[in-house]
Amino acid sequence: MKKFTYMLLALIVTSSCLNLDRFNPYSDDIHSLTISLSLEDGTAAAGVSINVEDIMNGNSFTGESDEKGRAVFSLVNGLYRIRVNCKIGQVLYNGTLDRVRLSGQEENKSLVLSKVVLSDLVIKEIYCGGCKKLPQEGDYQCDKYIIIHNNSAETVHLDSLCLGMYSPYNSNANNPWVSKDPEGNIVYKDFVPAADAIWQFPGDGSKFPLEPGQDAVIAVNGAIDHSAQYPLSVNLNNEDYFVCYNTTYFPNTSYHPAPGDKIRQDHILEVVVKTGIGNAYPLSINSPAVFLFKSKGMSAKEFTQLPESIQYIPGSTSLKVACVPIDWVIDAVEVFNGQSSANMKRVAPVLDAGYVKLEGSYMGHSLVRKKDEEKSAEAGYEVLLDTNNSSEDFYESETALLHNAGEGGGNE
After folding, report:
1. Residue 51 belongs to domain spanning
2. Domain match, 217 and 162 both
3. What does the pLDDT look like over 75-131, one tens digit per residue?
4. Contact 240, 411 (CB under 8 A)
5. What is the pTM assigned to this prediction?
6. Judgement on whether residues 210 and 277 belong to the same structural domain of the protein
7. 133 contacts: CB under 8 Å, gap ≥ 6
8. Are 162 and 331 a contacting pair, CB within 8 Å?
9. Strand runs (DSSP E) across 220-355, as ranges?
10. pLDDT in tens, 183-192
11. Backbone angles phi, psi at 106, to 5 degrees
């Protein structure tokens, strides 16, 4: 009964402190969490919805900031994640405070919201969780792919676009790239620690145009017809698809078999740099964080040759990362392991204020960006939701978009 009462109390959220009856037997377990929101210029963010998630049990509570930008939540002791995604005037803002602990006393937290910078190119789908080998026994995970979408009204060229993933590989692993400020808030680096390798589209700047509303499929693992042997998988042997394939750095043929007969030689992505030691590209099966970027002022290859661009992972003497400047990033998506309560954000809120959960591996599920129906109707082509908050922008689909899509799958 005591646990049930906690839950009822936690659901009470106001913009001023909750006044409990002085005879309440559970008053020692209820504390105030005050959140103060402001914009980058110091202006209070008033009338903004705030989401507070209990990390341990997944319960979420919502409140609204008052005219001073403050909201007070009355909650039980616990570990919380605070997320804000809002529109003030015509500008989108977001922000996140991760792993805020409420333990035996009141807590006051400040959150400065960042302007959302929208990108022409966005990540549309991440299929990484694999599927069952039915009708055979076992699990299959060598069919990972990512879809990139042109969300703008102009033609965008994929030439020199780079793909990478964050260190650490999994969302519930120890993250040595973040620290805490004096208030206990998580502080992110001003670069993205790109794990293992960076892949790049070839081309001279005009070779690979992507029209408005069109997709580009990247076979992270084999660009073959996986569904021929495993019907629950996907066919990645398509002349329009691209592939991460390099036998010098990744000779493991289980994950990187020779591309299928339909794959064009000029659609094979190049390895800009390899910093890991594995023989296969280790995109997490349950919680990758992936990003797209283009270098500025120099080529990606030139950047990785600078001494300060490559660092050892703290605590390791063999594993390194490439330190990609955060302002080079075009889009990033954070994936959390839906089976873990130890998830910690790797992606800075300015790039992705939220996350999308993958609830289970080997289920054939995929993580898909939502379609903006209103904007799509106005534009006449598919426009996807883009708020730099994967909690709002993505959903877990029970079926990968390319499953049984046929040879034209993935292109609009």
Report:
1. 2-115
2. yes
3. 999 999 999 988 888 888 989 898 899 988 899 999 999 888 889 999 999 999 999
4. yes
5. 0.87
6. yes
7. 139, 140, 230, 232
8. no
9. 242-244, 268-274, 289-293, 310-312, 320-325, 329-337
10. 777 899 999 9
11. -70, 150
